[in-house]
Write a structure and sequence with these properties.
- The chain is an alpha+beta fold.
- It has four domains: about 1-170, no CATH class; about 185-215; about 220-340, CBS-domain (Roll); about 355-475, 2-Layer Sandwich (Uridine Diphospho-n-acetylenolpyruvylglucosamine Reductase, domain 3), CATH 3.30.465.
- The chain has 20 helices and 13 strands.
- It has helices at about 1-30, 35-45, 50-55, 60-95, 100-135, 135-155, 155-170, 185-200, 205-215, 220-225, 240-250, 270-275, 285-290, 305-310, 335-340, 350-355, 370-380, 390-400, 415-420, 450-460; strands spanning about 225, 235, 255-260, 260-270, 295-300, 315-320, 325-330, 355-360, 365, 410, 430-440, 440-450, 475.
- It has a six-stranded antiparallel β-sheet with strand order 8-9-12-11-10-13. It has a four-stranded mixed β-sheet with strand order 1-7-6-5.
- Helix 4 (about 60-95) packs across helix 6, helix 4 (about 60-95) crosses helix 7 and helix 5 crosses helix 6 (about 135-155).
- It is elongated.
- About 25% of the residues are buried.
- One of its GO terms (cellular component) is plasma membrane.
- InterPro entries: CBS_dom, CBS_dom_sf, CNNM, FAD-bd_PCMH-like_sf, FAD-bd_PCMH_sub2, Ion_transp-like_CBS, Transptr-assoc_dom, UPF0053_domain.
- Keywords: CBS domain, Cell membrane, Membrane, Repeat, Transmembrane, Transmembrane helix.
Length: about 475
């Protein structure tokens, strides 16, 4: 009789451990599922299990409360059964080992407790947890049925516990939710893309496009625009022949029409407008007659809104106004596309000459109009905050004057020590040499990495203490 009771108790211990695993599995499976995965399973299979998974996912707070109750009850019952039953198996072994009779029972109970706890943790919690995390949908489809029966039986008690917990949570200023939020922020999606690329699930180019697309909304019109200093424009008095000549010379298809300068822009024309004018009249028809109105947006406008404005513009060109009301530059659809896809070249572009970054060994030739965030991403140099957005602006601010071809300067370190840790593997500084100027604008700069010792020697040569951050950097 005692043997039969022991066998039944042992079977009960195994069943209770499996029940604990059932509740643990439903917990991790439902919290690891995405709404889109559940909807796809319901659409493709449409069976009662798919419907049950969706039902419990939308009633997650109640289901998880039931799972916690189930885990608590089965764990308590497992301990209650396992200790005396397993102790009976250990007692004879302890007697054979010569343990005194008065110490056999307490030692057997302690060993039984340790073994029962270990088995319950491994097979009742850790194994089902790992299975549920690895394959949440299949696990959820398997366990929601039995767990739903338990929750139905104990529905009243679970609701009572749930209400008590909700009252406590609300007093903490938090509104309880019945299901997990499936939406993800741009930062979370960016992290997912990065992790997927690192694990090899996404190829590098796809990950780069996705990452740029997610960050596009964080850019501003000021970052997307072509600066006014590089904009080719037509005067209001220029003729169609001038339009054709400028299109041939620059390879551009759209031009703002101005009176004096870009601050007084009256509209925009495209090279296609020339074909609407008979050849005999092209020397008489002026740009003022052809110019169409052009939208104007502030520099601070976000990238998504800018893209909408560019797409809605009849000429796919918009002007960007600075805080003083002047024209800071213009944005075309190509500018928006290049922010996501990178540089795009057509038959009129000299891809080699127009490339913003060209590497020569450890050195970089960088366009002066490159933004500092692009410089950090490509080269690894993170500049300090300041009244500039481009490498050319940083060079000008560091020198404290209009640069000249041949100027060399030690670029200042980041004013954020934490950000400086994320610079490329080069432990040192960057030497910048101005190689090309366009009027007063820095057109091209060569960046060369310098070791910390070389940077200190250069600072010492110009009478600057190595520990000091020189205003305007060090130049020669």
């Amino acid at each position: 009789m005692d043997i039969a009771i022991s066998i039944v108790s042992l079977i009960g211990f195994i069943a209770l451990t499996a029940s604990t695993g059932l509740f643990v599995a439903v917990e991790f499976a439902l919290t690891g599922l995405e709404r889109s995965t559940i909807e796809h399973d319901l659409k493709t299979r449409g069976d009662h299990r798919a419907k049950a998974v969706k039902r419990d996912f939308h009633n997650l707070s109640f289901v998880l409360s039931g799972a916690q109750l189930g885990i608590t009850l089965t764990t308590l019952a497992t301990g209650y059964l396992a200790e005396p039953i397993l102790a009976k198996f250990f007692t004879p072994l302890l007697d054979l080992m010569g343990v005194p009779e008065d110490a056999t029972t307490p030692i057997a109970l302690v060993v039984a407790l340790l073994v029962a706890t270990g088995l319950s943790m491994v097979f009742g919690e850790l194994v089902p947890k790992n299975v549920a995390i690895t394959n949440p949908l299949a696990t959820a489809r398997t366990v929601v049925g039995p767990v739903h029966i338990f929750n139905t039986v104990f529905k009243g008690f679970i609701n009572l516990l749930n209400k008590a917990a909700n009252v406590t949570v609300r007093r903490m200023g938090i509104e309880p939710a019945d299901e997990l939020a499936s939406a993800r922020s741009a930062q979370e999606l960016t992290a997912l893309v990065r992790n997927s690329a690192e694990s090899g699930d996404l190829d590098e180019n796809t990950a780069l496009v996705l990452d740029r697309s997610l960050k596009f909304g964080e850019t501003t019109a000021g970052e997307l625009m072509t600066p006014r200093s590089t904009v080719d424009a037509l005067s209001a008095e220029d003729t169609v022949q001038d339009l054709i000549a400028l299109a041939i010379e620059t390879g551009h298809s759209r031009f703002p029409v101005i009176r004096g300068d870009l601050d007084d822009t009256i509209g925009v024309v495209t090279y296609k407008d020339a074909f609407s004018v008979p050849e005999a009249q092209r020397s008489a028809v002026t740009m003022q007659q052809l110019a169409r109105p052009v939208p104007i947006v502030p520099e601070s406008l976000d990238g998504d809104t800018v893209l909408d404005e560019v797409r809605k513009a009849g000429s796919q060109v918009i002007l960007v106004a600075d805080e003083y009301g002047g024209t800071a530059g213009l944005i075309t659809i190509e500018d928006c596309v290049e922010e996501i896809l990178g540089e795009v070249y057509d038959e009129h572009d000299d891809a080699e000459a127009e490339r913003d970054f060209q590497r020569f060994g450890s050195n970089w030739q960088v366009a002066g109009l490159v933004r500092l965030d692009e410089l950090a991403e490509k080269v690894g140099y993170i500049g300090p905050e300041g009244p500039y957005e481009t490498l050319g602006g940083l060079v000008m601010a560091t020198l404290g004057r209009i640069p000249k071809v041949g100027d060399e300067l030690l670029l200042p370190e980041s004013d954020n020590p934490m950000m400086a840790e994320f610079e490329s593997g080069i432990k040192g500084r960057w030497l910048a040499k101005v190689t090309l100027m366009e009027d007063r604008r820095v057109e091209s700069v060569i960046l060369s990495p310098m070791s910390a010792e070389e940077a200190e020697a250069m600072l010492a040569e110009h009478g600057v203490e190595p520990t000091q951050q020189p205003q305007g950097g060090s130049s020669r």
